[in-house]
Amino acid sequence: METSEPAHQLSALLSCQIDAMSQDLEWTLANFPFVAEATALANECDLVCSPTMSVASYHGLALPKLAFLGESPELLANYATFLIEPGSEVTLLVTREQRDIVERAFPVLEIIPERQMLFAGDAEALEIGTAAPLNAKHLQAMQALAHLTALKPLAKDPLAPGPAFGVWEGRTLAAMATTHVNIPSVAEIGDIATHPDYSHRSYTEHVIGALIRAHEEEGKRAFIMVDESNHEAIQRYEKMGFEHKRLMYRMRCRVEETVAENQ
Fold first, then answer.
1. Confidence label for 11 from pLDDT (cuts 50, 70 and 90)
2. Which of 128, 161, 164, 233 could bridge to 134 as Cys pair (CB 3.0-4.6 Å)?
3. Can you tell me the distance from the alpha carbon of 256 to that of 247, in angstroms, rounded to the nearest whole number?
């Protein structure tokens, strides 16, 4: 029988499963959206789970995000209606195998391939220049840089998941990078932006390098999600020491009312 509850009230079985599987780096990287929603983002998520399917929804963005563990398109479609108003749009970030499940569960409106890249180089060899930690008093400058560079709107509190670093030119925030997701063993670097007036410098590499060092000091590996069509960024990250792990797919879908046979 399925249960619906806040994600911070995980069933003992699911909690033990996540704890055990999170020891496997490959599993964690492939399933980090669900792990994040069930752990680090639990207070902002709801969860429906059963022994064969668990679905979490995060409501901290303009469009709700879904993440899941399980292989049944029917259960995914059914459980989603417990969490999302039918007719609403949602986003998911999934692996190749999960993409097939999502395509059978929902009408798909958009699919954007993204490359997951894990840092595998020497953090101490990275140049960090004048990159310095960002804090709450810098939020206005961070939002301004995000807007200037057409970066997606920052989260309500972009500093909550973990450290963030910036490079300043006088009072101008010239570059920044934040911790987007922070879960056991790994952290995702996000909100990477560089002021157009300083794009010819190495500030992007400096803020990313500073974040990599900060996370490695805590025993975490750092990874980045980058649009597969952004060849310039991919080449930059490869030069820094990031390695390709897998293609993932950001999917925008519509949740529909399920018919009785799916329940």
1. low
2. 164
3. 27
Any idea what DSSP says for residue 93?
Answer: E
For 61-113, write each residue's pLDDT tens digit.
Answer: 778 999 999 999 999 999 999 999 999 999 999 999 999 999 999 999 999 99
Q: Report the C-alpha gap between 89 and 147 in whole angstroms.
A: 24
Q: What does the DSSP 8-state code read for residue 6?
A: E
Read off the pLDDT of residues 180-208 as tens digits, 9 standing for 90 and up. Answer: 999 989 999 999 999 999 999 999 999 99
pTM of the model: 0.89
Burial 98-117 (b: 16+ CB within 10 A, else e): bbebbbebbebeeeeebbbb
Q: Give the per-residue pLDDT at 1.
A: 39
3-state secondary structure 130-182: CCEECCHHHHHHHHHHHHHCCCCCCCCCCCCCCCEEEEEECCEEEEEEEEEEE
Classify residue 21 as exposed, middle or buried by CB count within 10 Å of its CB (0-12, 13-18, 19+): middle
Task: Report which residue type is found at 125.
Answer: A
Residue whose tokens read 């993409």? 99
Contact at 8 Å (CB) between 21 and 184? no
Measure the CA–CA gap between 121 and 102, rounded to whole angstroms: 34
